[in-house]
Amino acid sequence: MKLIDGGRAPNPRRVRIFLAEKGISIPTETVDFMNRAHHTEAFKKINPMQRVPVLILDDGTAISESVAICRYFEALHPDPPMFGTDAKEQAVIEMWNRRMELNLLAAIITVFRHAHPAMAELEVPQVPEWAEASKPKVLYCLDWLNGELAGREFIAGDKFSIADITALVAVDFLKPAKLSVPDTLADLLGWHERIKARPSAAA
Questions:
Q1: CA–CA separation, 40 vs 50, rounded Å?
Q2: CATH code, 87-202
Q3: For residue 187, what are the contacts with CB-CB under 8 A and spacing of at least 6?
Q4: What is the pLDDT of residue 134?
């Protein structure tokens, strides 16, 4: 078994943080994302979508998509639970993880991929206007999330979960996208300080 990684990109980092929280260590191979190593014919045979991360099992099965990889390890190593334990908790965590993924992380990635000069050859066509149109969406979501975090420690309730991991990599990716959390969003900033202080955040 090995994990094909992609450096500091948000989705590979999600898997690394998840594994660190679980205390799982597996062999890792890092793909040079910026030099398009994931666009080679050899990599297409592993993942036709040409994206990282990819988990290669001992029988040769290739599992891509970061949450799918995390769910695989959750099934093998259920403690500590990151996707919830009972039906209600699992549904709430799933809801919040999807919110963080589709509303926050996706918008930040759009800004980065369509505005950063280094992405011009990878994001074809690169549409700067789309990046600009996405910036207010990011700020709206940050403001909304700040209100949701008032009075609670974690994204999906009273336990650390995959939703916190997704939100962490999203907020951390604001910097490469040349965005930031406004100073007025104290609850969000407080959450971020707590989560990035966890040892797994360095993974």
A1: 8
A2: 1.20.1050.10
A3: 146, 147, 149, 150
A4: 98
**Domain 2-76 grouped into CATH 3.40.30.10:** yes
Strands 54-56 and 62-64: antiparallel
What sign does the CA torsion over 86, 89, 91, 93 have?
A: negative
Look up residue 180 and give its two tokens: 């930031």
Q: Is pLDDT at 76 greater than 70 in this prediction?
A: yes
Q: How far is CA 120 from CA 68, 111, 113, 114, 127, in A?
A: 29, 12, 8, 8, 9
Please report the pLDDT score of residue 35 as a whole number.
Answer: 66
The reported pLDDT for the residue numbered 46 is 87
**Which structure tokens are listed for 187?**
């609850």
Q: Report which DSSP code applies to 82.
A: S
Domain residue extents for the chain: 2-76, 87-202
In the predicted model, is pLDDT for residue 77 greater than 70?
yes
